[in-house]
């Protein structure tokens, strides 16, 4: 199908974009970034925004840069930008590994990192990365910038802490230490399809092999991705062996509250967490 | 409902169009430019039949507004053949039976053009990964892969 008619606005500055959103957000106006989720929803008439504020021509929103140990990802940086290492050290490798799971090659040329976070699909990869790495979201409106912690950003299924007139102008990801190791595992039914379950683990270990820092998150199962502090605590201070990894995976699977297919998703949770941890320990 | 004057540069030729904001790039190519080689299957980004090149990279033409393509170099399947001489990929698709009904073929050709222009020596595993972007429901992917590999070899000569 074709989208319902709408007015298209193409600002070239951030100030102009904020002013347009202030004017049109109360009339259900939306931000158009990569359009790889919004335009299909419009074609299916699930979404019928009467105004689109297209931010693709806004100067400066395509910046992807490392400043003071933080990777700053502008609002229109595409998924494809992460396929080649976009940051030094393990963070760049992590983002490149995850990016290959996002939809298909042509979709990755248009879809954006920040747009994925705003859309807040429970089965999307970037929101899991943001949650596990404690990203900071920088929202912008006529009121100025507002910084939002990842844990407070995605409130549930397709729901975020953004106000209707706010634009997610950038996301900040802290660089990972050079000795950090990660594991990412996703199960989907077809290549490029939405995740049934996915897990991201990031571990640091001391010279004696003991875990000094543990981050472990699950996506695609609950309405929003999140970390699992109890499982992380099991790993911290321990030397991870097969039994401990299985116990941590079991703990996540028990704590998770699947949206659907409860038994299957719990089993899948255990599997993806176990595999992600094994990769991070390899 | 906003109407816009847009110039689309397709296969090196400028097309001046007047169209509503909701017109997709795919529809503008077909209806506005008369270039019906770009096919529309699902119209929501799943099938890849509408894949075209935008400044050298493959995109779903159904998931872009035509107004967004102003200033970009667009390439479609009509731009592949040089007169009566088919592009090596088109010839390879025929030689290796990489199409039956042909509906998905324009999208696969543009996807494959982008693959081989980016990396003429693309490893098979990466080819398989990229070709999974588009749907073919009759030929199957084995012959499409063979055709792309054959074209890569022909283009290297």
TrEMBL record, chain A:
Keyword Oxidoreductase (UniProt): yes
Keywords: FAD, Flavoprotein, Oxidoreductase
FAD-binding PCMH-type domain mapped to chain residues: 1-178
Domain of life of the organism encoding this protein: Bacteria
Taxonomic source organism: Falsiroseomonas selenitidurans
Protein name as catalogued: Xanthine dehydrogenase family protein subunit M
Keyword Ribosomal protein among record annotations: no
One Pfam family cited in the UniProt record for this chain: FAD_binding_5
Annotated SMART domains: CO_deh_flav_C (SM01092)
Automatic annotation (TrEMBL), chain B:
2Fe-2S ferredoxin-type domain: residues covered: 4-80
Keyword Oxidoreductase set for record: yes
Keywords for this protein: 2Fe-2S, Iron, Iron-sulfur, Metal-binding, Oxidoreductase
Coiled coil region boundaries: none
Keyword hit for rRNA processing: no
Record Pfam families: Fer2, Fer2_2
Protein name: (2Fe-2S)-binding protein
Organism per entry: Falsiroseomonas selenitidurans
